[in-house]
Amino acid sequence: MTNDKLIEIFTDLPPASRLGIDIGRVLMCPTHDDGRPDTSFLGASDEAALETPAAPGMFETVPALVRLFDGQAWLVSKAGRRIEALTRRWLEHHRFFERTGMDASHLRFCRRREEKREHAADLGLTHFIDDRLDVLGHLRGAVPRLALFGVQTEPIPDWVVHLPEWAALGRVLA
User: Fold this and answer.
1) Distance between CA 105 and CA 75 in Å, rounded?
2) Which of 1, 25, 141, 149 has its CA 20 to 30 A from that of 94?
3) CB–CB of 60/20 below 8 Å?
């Protein structure tokens, strides 16, 4: 069922489709198989945090998404000042924008999760990938196609599509 829903929302895109992607626990530090969050980036020294690997399959799948959305893809993340600065350094360290083809100016941060809705409205996002159901709840009604990323320990409501890992979407896009 998940693949059918992924195919439905990530193929035959309507004109002017625009994608938002969260960073933490989506691009890096995905949730462990047992549902525990990976907090290694948050708790590490700055230098150790830079060495945090990308989520498996991310660098293979995000470039395909950027192409699919004709470059209309943004990173939208909630972070305090320290984590925002560290995240910017992580993106640079891993050459994220160079490797994915995403425009480096397509990066937004907010201080509260519900503020992602303001960014989504401002950017006219039609799709959003996030690991937190509460965030997607804030986006509900503003962004028509919502994907819940990673291992989830609670039931997944029918108003989101479950994206368990990047490889699942990579197979759909292949």
Assistant:
1) 9
2) 149
3) no
The domains of the chain are located at 2-173
Q: Hey, what CATH topology would domain 2-173 get?
A: Rossmann fold (3.40.50)
Which residues, at least 6 apart from 132, have a Cβ–Cβ distance to it below 8 Å?
22, 25, 113
pLDDT averaged over 10-residue windows placed end to end, the chain, 174 residues: 84 94 91 68 80 92 98 97 95 98 98 97 98 97 97 94 95 92
Distance CA 94, CA 145 (A): 28
Q: How far apart are CA 6 and CA 158, in angstroms?
A: 13
The Cα–Cα gap between 136 and 121 comes to 13
pTM for this entry: 0.94
Give dist(CA 78, CA 134) in Å, integer.
13
pLDDT at 52: 87
